[in-house]
UniProtKB/TrEMBL annotation:
Any one Pfam family match given in the protein's UniProt record, by short name: LysM
Protein name per its UniProtKB record: Lytic transglycosylase LysM domain-containing protein
Superkingdom in the source lineage: Bacteria
Positions of the LysM domain: 35-85
Organism per entry: Desulfonema limicola
Length: 662
């Protein structure tokens, strides 16, 4: 045996003994282990704690290392190796207040720091000129600007700064005798000695008719100083004042609609600049705009809701097809695709507007969508409505050459349609069109019950096609599915069918309990101001779904394992769960349901309070191509719904809640 062979043989023996000793160490303590697990790709001890023990703290990491002496670095453990997880006593489980997990692992802040000062007062000295006063907590160079969101900044000369850190400037805000009801942004931009912009102090102002020397102070109405922590309706109104613009000021000619109003769907902060193009080019969406219009109608802001609906009504073609989204600032992109779910929400908003105003303005379009769009999309076997159309031969900068029909029926789309059609049938009563809508709703409801309900799971499948059910687990299928079932329960009760009413109530409870079991999450945050906390909510999906895959990152093309995303709170979906529990409590008087709804609302208020403009993150986790961390319109609108329906006065409004097309 040569020297090389001896060395190799000795090394193999030592390696065997080393491995065996580790195996013996685990085997010797196996009675003390809660479980033995095998390390997977990407695992760290922190991830293992959350996945297998349900908790995490530095103390638990230390305890695991004591049980597994072969682990030297908790962030570098080898795939395939075994780990003994010790039992954890209640005393060892840390309180939420004692540990926090920043979403970006300390590399990037969740929210930017609060503004270094404030704009506190304006005094109008004539129709379009005002003296602006405020405070700046810095000695940086500064320039004062006025601009409309999406437009260029206009410098205002004559800025005066004083020793007590206050400033004063005379600013022109809009054009003489024009630009009323338009939102302007007042901005004090801060620069370093090299001329680089390092910060800003801003304040949105809505231009209105006013008296000479009228003073407007920005105090309690705007929440805490610098707009930090504005929640509820004041926060919603502040966010809208930053995002909205007169439709005639749009750069996209198709959206220049007289007496129309646009609300940009996204607002992006410094922590995810890769998606800021969506707000830079003024992305507006049919779904977000429809949700907002419904919230405004319920709040009593009928004029503004009508202006929002008017812009989108102008986009409908002769067959009732409407684009999903468009850019309206510095770009003329219009989505070539059409989706039934978004159309359903718009249809519900039109029906609600028609019920409240009785103006007849929306009558022709309602009929066009129902007869020309929905009826041709009826799937003959199930009676459900297909998902819409994909535009052919267009990337959004020219009209599609044609449309390809989507051959899949979405549960979510059909829930939305049932709600909208039931409201339309109420608005039009016993007329031919009213009966047409009522019968279509009944047919859709029958299809939902027969083809979308999963008896074994106790919730709805994501969709259906003639080849069979789409059994992907989506949160909306449990939450919006529960809202559909509760509507059916109410309708059955109205016709004195107690057996059917109880049947639907039982299924609604099953859906909601499914959501509680499979979708709940907690997000831990830490702000630059060192505010720490946690927000409980729900993620959008559960399990593995073949058509939902990562587009980038370490494993592009890999299916997303939604069960691993325990820190992802999807605000829009979470608020949908809150609405469903609130409605279930209204039907049954169930105290647990009411408590869950209140808990969800309070958590979402907490999330809203992190914004400096009253906005709400769409998701606490960015997944490119699927979920964004931008502040988003539909999420804020669902917050408005939940805010409204929990008001005791709301139930007195013509029983509108029993008709509302959620």
């Amino acid at each position: 045996m040569n020297n090389y062979t001896r060395c190799l043989f000795t090394f193999i023996i030592l390696l065997f003994l080393c491995t065996a000793s580790k195996g013996i160490a685990i085997e010797k303590d196996i009675s003390k282990c809660k479980k033995i697990i095998t390390i997977q790709k990407g695992d760290t001890l922190a991830k293992i704690c959350r996945r297998h023990l349900g908790e995490y703290s530095p103390e638990l990491i230390i305890k695991i290392q004591k049980y597994n002496s072969h682990i030297k670095n908790p962030d570098r453990i080898f795939i395939g190796s075994k780990i003994c997880l010790p039992p954890v006593s209640e005393q060892e489980i840390p309180l939420e207040s004692s540990f926090f997990k920043p979403v970006f692992a300390g590399k990037r802040d969740v929210y930017p720091p609060s503004m270094p000062g404030t704009i506190s007062k304006i005094q109008w000295i004539n129709d379009n000129t005002a003296i602006v006063e405020g405070r700046m907590d810095t000695d940086a160079n500064s320039i004062f600007y006025v601009y409309v969101p999406g437009d260029q900044e206009y410098e205002q000369p004559g800025l005066e700064k004083y020793e007590n850190n206050t400033f004063r400037v005379t600013a022109v805000i809009g054009r003489q005798g024009r630009d009323y009801d338009k939102t302007f942004i007042l901005k004090l931009a801060l620069f370093d000695t090299m001329g680089e912009r390092i910060g800003e102090i801003t304040r949105p102002v809505v231009r209105t008719h006013h008296k000479v020397n009228e003073i407007v102070s920005f105090g309690a109405k705007h929440g805490q100083e610098d707009d930090i922590g504005i929640t509820g309706w004041p926060g919603i109104e502040t966010w809208l004042s930053v995002q909205e613009l007169d439709a005639m000021d749009a750069d996209n000619i198709d959206f220049k609609i007289p007496q129309g109003r646009l609300v940009v769907n996204y607002r992006y902060m410094g922590y995810n600049p890769d998606e800021r193009y969506l707000s830079r080019y003024g992305r507006v969406t049919l779904y977000g705009s429809s949700c907002l219009a419904k919230a405004l109608l319920l709040k009593g802001s009928i004029k503004k809701a009508g202006e929002i609906l008017r812009v989108w009504a102008a986009q409908a073609d002769e067959n009732g097809k409407m684009p999903r989204s468009a850019n309206v600032i510095g770009d003329n992109y219009i989505s070539p695709d059409v989706r039934t779910g978004e159309t359903a929400h718009f249809l519900g908003a039109l029906a609600l507007a028609e019920k409240i105003t009785k103006s007849g303005e929306w009558d022709e379009l309602i009929r066009k969508i129902v007869i020309n769009y929905l009826e041709p999309l009826t799937e003959p076997v199930s009676g459900l409505i297909l998902g819409g159309y994909n535009g052919i031969g267009s990337q959004g900068y020219n009209k599609p050459k044609g449309y390809e029909k989507i051959t899949w029926c979405s549960a979510e789309h059909n829930f939305d349609l049932f709600q909208a059609l039931m409201l339309i049938s109420h608005v039009y009563g016993d007329s031919d069109f009213g009966r047409t809508c009522y019968n279509m709703a009944l047919r859709i409801g029958k299809g939902i019950d027969q083809y979308l309900w999963d008896q074994d799971a106790g919730t709805f499948n994501r969709g259906w096609r003639p080849q069979g059910p789409d059994r992907a687990r989506a949160l909306d299928c449990s939450s919006w599915g529960a809202l559909y079932l509760l509507k059916q329960a109410g309708l059955a009760k109205n016709r004195h069918d107690e057996k059917a009413s109880q049947h639907y109530l039982k299924r609604a409870e099953s859906c909601l309990n499914y959501a509680e079991k499979h979708f709940k999450t907690t997000w831990y945050y830490q702000t630059p101001g060192d505010k720490k906390g946690s927000i409980k909510g729900y993620r959008p999906y559960a399990g593995l779904i073949d058509d939902l895959r990562y587009e980038d990152g370490a494993d592009p093309g890999k299916m997303i394992n939604w069960n691993e995303l325990t820190d992802m709170v999807w605000s829009e979906g979470t608020l949908g769960v809150g609405m469903a529990w609130e409605e279930y409590a209204r039907h049954t008087g169930n105290k647990r349901a009411k408590n869950i709804s209140r808990e969800i609302y309070n958590n979402m208020i907490n999330l809203q309070s992190l914004s400096n403009k009253g906005g709400m993150l769409y998701s606490t986790k960015q997944i490119k191509g699927h979920f964004t961390m931008g502040e988003e319109l539909a999420s804020l609108s669902w917050m408005a719904y939940l805010n409204l329906v929990t008001s005791s006065d709301f139930y007195k409004k013509d029983n509108i809640i029993s008709l509302m097309p959620w």
